[in-house]
Amino acid sequence: MSLEMEYKELLDKKQIPEHVAIIMDGNGRWAKGQGKERSYGHQAGVGSVRVIAETAARLGLRYLTLYTFSTENWNRPAGEIAALMKLLLDSLEEEIFMKNNIRFDVIGERDKLPPEVRERMEECIAHTGKNTGMTLVLALSYSSRWEITDSVKRIAKAVREQTLQLADIHECTISSFLTTASMPDPDLLIRTGGEIRLSNFLLWQCAYSELYFCDTYWPDFKEEEFYRAIYDYQQRERRFGKTSEQI
Questions:
Q1: Residue in 25, 105, 185, 187 annotated catalytic
Q2: How far out from the chain centre does Cα 182 lie?
Q3: pTM to 2 decimals?
């Protein structure tokens, strides 16, 4: 039995996570290992996005959020940013969404994205809006500190305008002002590429997420690695601050 089949068959279909978030890391280092430019790694990474999105949809996930481009990534060389934006534009193939009944959405500072990218994204969001399966969310021009800062500003504005009372601000209030307000917090966060950090991604939302780190570079992260991550998640006891006896 192959490793892929082994982990797939071991999965408990009743414990499939509702929301998985992934930090897709290692494209550049993968390309360097191939003796290629970094853009070659990003192109190869698109293949993994398609594979994992289709696999997640088949497993029955409700949400899959992919960290695609951070606010800090704007500091990269202009040529690499331009190549990434073109790749993003070219890779939004609605056929994959429609074939797999996947809705598409985006979180992040959309205003910073090139107009043609924003227009293509909005078209894809509108055309897939009636799909009833998994929602694939791309975090574009996103960082958690930006998101939390923006939510604080909007909460302060609501208090100033007296549409929100100071006494009514609770954890749920803050969550409702975040860009992820319409989705549950991630059950599982996966990071590929061997680094062990969150890199300013969904910091509020991942307070009680299970974390899974692997050395596999994103272009090589396929079904078997995804099944393995979910199997590992299913072996953990999620206590949310309680004791084992209380669960």
A1: 25
A2: 14
A3: 0.93
Give catalytic status of residue 187 as yes or no. Answer: no
Q: What are phi and psi of 34, to 5 degrees?
A: -90, 0
- Reply yes or no on whether 168 is catalytic: no
What six digits make up the tokens of 67? 């960290």
| pLDDT in single tens digits along all 247 residues of the chain | 455 568 999 999 999 999 999 999 999 999 999 999 988 999 999 999 999 999 999 999 999 999 999 999 999 888 888 888 888 878 877 788 999 999 999 999 999 988 888 999 999 999 999 999 999 999 999 999 999 999 999 999 999 999 999 999 999 999 999 999 999 999 999 999 999 999 999 999 999 999 999 999 999 999 999 999 999 999 998 777 767 765 6
DSSP letter for 236, please.
Answer: S
What is the distance between the alpha carbons of residues 26 and 215, in angstroms, rounded to a whole number?
9
How many other C-beta atoms can be found within 10 angstroms of the C-beta atom of residue 219? 25
Distance of alpha carbon 97 from alpha carbon 103, whole angstroms: 7
Q: Of the residues 27, 73, 100, 215, which is catalytic?
A: 73
Which run of H or of E encompasses 39?
Answer: helix 38-59
